[in-house]
Structure formats: structure tokens, C-alpha cells
Design goal:
By secondary structure, this protein is of the alpha/beta class. It has helices at about 40-45, 80-105, 120-125, 150-155, 175-185, 205-220, and strands spanning about 10, 20-25, 50-55, 60, 70, 110-115, 135-140, 160-165, 190-195.
Length: about 220
């Protein structure tokens, strides 16, 4: 039933004005919506002039705020509940990715996923379990959900870059180090960077590093 849910959200066409040669999907965090991350596209468009950007609204209304969307509920933030949450949302995101690639005439090797917070959780979970590896996964202020199942579930090992603030009050920076360790054990090594003095957010350093990573993944 979940996979029949159709996602959509704001878009940013290739700066070159031509057809897209790559696709960047931006996945927002809890309580936001697709408008939150589409603003990253202009920062990176000069590095990726042939990339189309899309930032879908998460499928469910946020149950912890009067506005915004969520990929899954975090009322129960236990590891088991979060694992169930990403597993239930994964088919919805997978179907969206497949549809966007088909519409653009592109394949997984021309796709990058960018996540923030809960969007990073979804990006990591889905990208590592798809049949074909995408070009790259860029995750800000997130974590790896269900790390204990990764070794048995992993199908793809795309390039990964994780960026986190050392003052993050919502998802401690230890989550980055834990994810890097588990990913390495599953054969999916990740680059990473800790932003000094940054809380739960994205700063200029993170934007610059993310842009360089995406260019390295998707640049012709």
C-alpha cells in the first residue's frame, strides 16, 4: 500500500538550459518539506550545470508539529521503531527514484541522493539496498538506522560523504562516527567531515564540501 503513495515537490531545472544529464534528489528532515532543501540547488548549480534537482515532500504529515512532513514518526525513537519506520517508507522513496530516473531518461549511476537529518537516514537506507549503486550519497546531520542488518541487506556501495556539526543537539556527532564504522564493516567506506561549532544544520563549509563531493560523483 505504501509504495502507491506518489511524492512530488519543488524542482530546479539544469542551469545549462538543456536536458538533464544527472539528477540530484534532496530529502528533507522531520517537520520540514521539500521547500526546505531545494534552496541548496542554486548553490551547486554552477558546479553541476547539467543536473536537475528535485526535493520531494515526505509522504506523511508530521505528527510532532502542526505543519511539515515526515518520512516516518519519531514519537518512538527507539532503534526498533526507527527501523520499522525506514523500512515502511523505503518503498515509497524507491518508487519515486525509479519514476524520476525514468522520466529523465537516466540510470542510477547518474543519480545522487542528498539528505538532511531524517532525510539522511532515508538516503543511506535506500541507497545501500537498491540493486544498482547510485553515483553518490551526501548526508548532513543524520545517522544510520538499523546498522545491525546492513551486512545482510546491502546490495550497493555508492560513494558516501557524511557531514555533521560537533554541537548537534538533536543527533549527536557520535552518530557520524558510528555510521562510518558500520559502513566500513559492510564494505561501504565513507568520507566524512565534522563542522566545528555547528549545531543541527548546514553551514558554508558543509555546502562547499558537499558541492565538491557531488561534482566528483556527477561531473562529466
Amino acid at each position: 500500500m505504501a509504495a502507491t503513495t506518489t511524492l512530488n515537490g519543488p524542482r530546479h531545472a539544469p542551469a545549462s538550459g538543456g536536458p538533464p544529464k544527472s539528477l540530484v534528489i534532496l530529502l528533507h528532515g522531520l517537520g520540514a518539506d521539500g521547500n526546505d532543501l531545494i534552496g541548496l540547488a542554486p548553490h551547486w548549480a554552477h558546479l553541476l550545470p547539467d543536473a536537475a534537482f528535485v526535493s520531494p515532500h515526505a509522504p506523511f504529515p508530521c505528527d510532532m508539529a502542526p505543519m511539515g512532513r515526515q518520512w516516518f514518526s519519531l514519537r518512538d525513537a527507539s532503534p526498533a521503531a526507527m527501523a520499522r519506520g525506514v523500512e515502511q517508507a523505503a518503498p515509497i522513496l524507491d518508487a519515486f527514484i525509479d519514476a524520476e530516473l525514468e522520466n529523465a531518461g537516466l540510470t542510477d549511476d547518474r543519480l545522487a541522493l542528498v539528505g538532511f537529518s531524517q532525510g539522511t537516514m532515508m538516503s543511506l537506507h535506500v541507497s545501500l539496498r537498491r540493486t544498482r549503486a547510485c553515483a553518490g550519497v551526501l548526508g548532513y546531520s543524520g545517522m544510520l538506522v538499523a546498522p545491525e542488518t546492513l551486512k545482510s541487506d546491502i546490495h550497493a556501495r555508492p560513494p558516501i560523504m557524511l557531514i555533521h556539526g560537533d554541537r548537534d543537539e538533536l543527533i549527536p556527532v557520535d552518530a557520524l562516527h558510528g555510521a562510518v564504522s558500520v559502513l566500513a564493516e559492510a564494505g561501504a567506506s565513507a568520507q566524512w567531515h565534522v563542522c566545528e561549532g555547528l549545531g543541527h544544520g548546514i553551514d558554508e563549509t558543509g555546502l562547499d564540501l558537499g558541492g565538491k563531493f557531488l561534482k566528483g560523483c556527477l561531473g562529466s
